[in-house]
Amino acid sequence: MSYNSFGQLFRLTTWGESHGPAIGCVVDGCPPRIRLSEADIQPWLDRRRPGQSRFTSQRAEPDQVRILSGVFEGETTGTPIALVIENVDQRSKDYSDIRDRFRPGHADLTYELKYGARDYRGGGRASARETAMRVAAGAVARRVLGEAVRIRGALIQIGPHAIARARWDWNEVDANPFFCPDPETVPVWEDYLGSIRKAGSSVGAIIEVVAEGAPPGLGAPVYGKLDADLASGLMSINAVKGVEIGAGFASATLRGEENADEMRMREGEVEFLTNHAGGILGGISSGAPIVARFAVKPTSSILVPRRSVDRFGSEIDVMTKGRHDPCVGIRAVPVGEAMMALVLADHLLRHRAQNPDAPDRPRLPRN
User: Fold this and answer.
1) How many angstroms separate the CA atoms of 272 and 30, rounded?
2) How far apart are CA 359 and CA 355, in angstroms?
3) What pairs with residue 83 in β-bridges?
4) CA 320, CA 200: separation in Å to the nearest integer?
5) 52-70: b (≥16 Cβ within 10 Å) or e
């Protein structure tokens, strides 16, 4: 199976299956002499780890990462960085009933039609378990970007219940099990997800990721656009069905004078009075915060019987057993952050390669 790599100069390749002995990745292209240890990676994995509340899968994976190569005496060497996480809480027997059955909403059918074979245990390679390695690699990407670039994500809608943006507080994101920036919406989501879970069903969500401090100049016209690569990275996350940058689809409802982000000079730098563009103009970062949102569909593994077929062509009903997230969007927040970090790190290195003499934070020339 090909296409397991992402990025150009800063390149991630992941491997492993949901119920295999381990999952892992190789990060290639990381510059040398960057301080890096397992302690720099583990906190980000802990945010994505399952079983931390009743609103996520109860699969008890510690997700302890090990660095196998590419780091010597606490610094990157410029060689490939290999990371691995052992799988310790597989319950493959939970999936024995669907060995020959195709679950609606899953990749079971398409994998079978494409490859003629599939790992039915938890979805195999199609499982969201793979995203743990994206988060691990994203931690490396954050080290490449440096502390000046801050990437944060938040869950802004579950099912029909959206947050009130006027109450947005980043300090609240890590204070509740939903990564929710609006404390008043948390009890609403708790009640709603509780009822969804009792019904054996699931629900979708919307996540917003913001990168502050990214320098202007990242990205390239036409086929190297920063927003195109960011959309590709976010769209590659399991269960994602839509991506938007800045105002996104809402920009279609705006007039030209509303949508155009006006500018002024503040202390020698350009300041945007609004940010409908989401920090990207013509595929190139402007220096304003980079804002992206993505929509995650409801978890397809549910206890409600659904009509389907099996690999022998018989019509059947399917009910999925096992441990699953009633809203996979919750744990997608740190994954979205990781993909933002991976894309920005890749474009930062590409920008430096094409413009080796350019400052990291270019400014307009003075009169």
Assistant:
1) 32
2) 9
3) 25, 67
4) 10
5) eeebbbebebebebebeeb
Q: How far is CA 108 from the centre of its chain?
A: 22
- Written as six digits, the tokens of 347 are 């474009």
Lowest mean pLDDT among 106-120, 228-242, 344-358: 106-120
User: Is the pLDDT score of 164 beyond 70?
Assistant: yes
Strand partners, 205: 158, 296
The SS3 call for residue 12 is strand
- Please state the φ and ψ torsions of residue 36, each to the nearest 5 degrees: -155, 135
- pLDDT value of position 275: 98
pTM above 0.85, yes or no: yes
Q: Is 109 helix (H, G, I), strand (E, B) or coil?
A: helix
User: 25 pLDDT exceeds 80?
Assistant: yes
User: What single string gives the DSSP state of each residue in 130-163?
Assistant: GHHHHHHHHHHHHHHH-TT-EEEEEEEEETTEE-
- What backbone phi and psi angles, to 5 degrees, belong to 255? -85, 160
Residue 209 contacts residue 337 (beta carbons within 8 Å): yes
Structure tokens at 110: 């398409």
In tens, the pLDDT along 45-101 reads 999 986 666 666 655 678 999 999 999 999 999 999 999 999 886 665 666 777 889
List the structure tokens of 356.
Answer: 């080796």
Q: What is the 3-state secondary structure (H, E, C) of 61-83?
A: CCCCEEEEECEECCEECCCCEEE
pLDDT of residue 90: 60
